[in-house]
Design goal:
Blueprint lengths: L10 H5 L12 H10 L8 H9 L4 H18 L8 H8 L3 H6 L1 H11 L7 H13 L2 H4 L4
């Protein structure tokens, strides 16, 4: 899951699925998700990644990108940087099956979230729930 991913490609190109146009009566979220699937993933902003990940869209390609962003934000936090709470929430609340299937990415996320220091009570609770949900072999290993 963490191998090279071409950020110039859209989810449609990466997964080979064209969803087509959304139904005429689709909600704004559905229309937006369809639109974002057509954009190169490297152009997606953190809040857009958060919405797609929260809908379990394109996880194979978007989670590595999101974890990279969260790691970079965590490293900048001591110097006054901040963490995108929506992105953090969408990533750490994915099902434990996602992390079991992709242990290297789970380790990367674990390493990133353990660096975070300035989290809201809700963010702390969700990060702790993520850490508890990890398989035993990932909770206590560094690699």
């Amino acid at each position: 899951m963490t191998e090279f991913i071409d950020h110039t490609k859209s989810l449609e190109k990466l997964d080979g699925e064209r969803w087509g146009d959304p139904p005429a009566d689709a909600t704004s979220l559905v229309r937006t998700v369809h639109e974002w699937r057509r954009r190169p993933i490297g152009t997606l902003k953190p809040h857009e990644l958060a919405r797609l990940i929260g809908q379990d869209v394109g996880l194979l390609w978007l989670l590595p990108l999101a974890v990279e962003i969260l790691r970079d934000e965590a490293l900048k936090q001591p110097a006054g940087g901040f963490v995108d709470g929506d992105l953090l929430y969408s990533v750490v609340t994915r099902s434990s099956q996602v992390w079991t299937a992709h242990p290297d990415l789970a380790r990367e996320l674990k390493d990133a979230v353990t660096l975070l220091t300035d989290l809201s009570t809700c963010e702390k609770r969700e990060v702790e729930a993520f850490l508890v949900s990890l398989p035993e072999k990932l909770k206590y290993s560094d690699r």
